[in-house]
Specification:
5-stranded antiparallel sheet, 10 strands, alpha/beta, single chain, Rossmann fold, 2 domains
């Protein structure tokens, strides 16, 4: 049973076809989390569909079905699409990490495991998932009403309100906060990168921004085009990059209208 209550441990499903790697996961995580360890992508899908875990640690290179395909199948099913996935692999090239992100993964850890790095990334992914679950449960009704009310004219009004509020702002932090508030009017959860000579500033509705999402934001196109990663969409406007975590792909009209609004 998935955890989330204070008196329960979070439940992590670890997937790797090398027994020694599963043993290492047990050593690092076994004291703090409830672990189920399996050795194939097929068994991972069966376990996740039977009872969704709080997090999946998924090896990329496995015999049979590889981790990328497993993740794509998890993200395609409503009952498993919201499970955070951290890929684990001996490969660490940027294009490989981005392939994992495009498949629906949330982060990437390289082998051999660094104990501290793995724990930090697991705890960050679980904290983000818990925040999203709490937000969704507490605001579902209000968000349904808001999204119904936000017609094309309502969305344009929200954009104009943001532009009016942003004009007098003097700091990047204030600009970022105003942008987060504006996107929230659309029911969108985002990660921002604001560039300047002082260094890049990263902000999100969930607080922390992981290294993989920072790398994704750095690859944004400069001409305002959108890059889609399943439910996630990346765009860049001048010195501001935006990564939308919950693009409304299930609502074709709203999806197309939102993109048109920002052209």
């Amino acid at each position: 049973m998935a955890a989330g209550q204070d008196d329960h441990k979070f439940w992590i499903l670890g997937v790797d076809d090398e027994p020694q790697n599963l043993e290492i996961l047990e050593e690092i995580l076994g004291d703090q989390f409830e672990l189920t360890l399996v050795s194939s992508g097929r068994v991972c899908l069966d376990e996740a569909n039977a009872a969704p875990p709080d997090l999946i640690l998924l090896d990329v290179n496995m015999q049979g079905m590889d981790g990328l395909e497993v993740c794509r199948r998890l993200k395609a099913e409503p009952d498993t699409s919201e499970i955070p996935v951290i890929f684990v692999s001996a490969y660490s090239k940027l294009e490989e990490r981005l392939a994992g992100y495009q498949a629906g993964g949330d982060d990437y850890v390289t082998k051999p495991f660094d104990d501290e790095e793995l724990l930090i990334k697991v705890k960050l992914a679980l904290a983000t998932k818990r925040q999203l679950d709490s937000l969704q449960q507490s605001s579902t009704d209000a968000l349904d009403v808001a999204q119904t009310a936000l017609s094309a004219s309502g969305e344009a009004e929200a954009l104009l309100h943001f532009l009016g509020a942003a004009y007098p702002l003097n700091s990047r932090a204030d600009l970022g906060k105003s942008m987060l508030d504006m996107f929230e009017c659309y029911g969108l959860r985002v990660v921002l990168r604001i560039e300047s000579e002082e260094g890049d500033l990263y902000l999100s509705h969930e607080g922390d921004v992981g290294p993989l999402e920072q790398e994704v934001l750095e690859m944004g196109p400069d001409d305002g085009r959108f890059i889609d990663f399943g439910r996630r969409t990346l765009a860049k406007y001048g010195g501001v990059s935006v990564l939308i975590r919950n693009m409304p792909v299930e609502d074709a009209n709203r999806h197309a209208r939102w993109k048109k609004t920002w052209k």
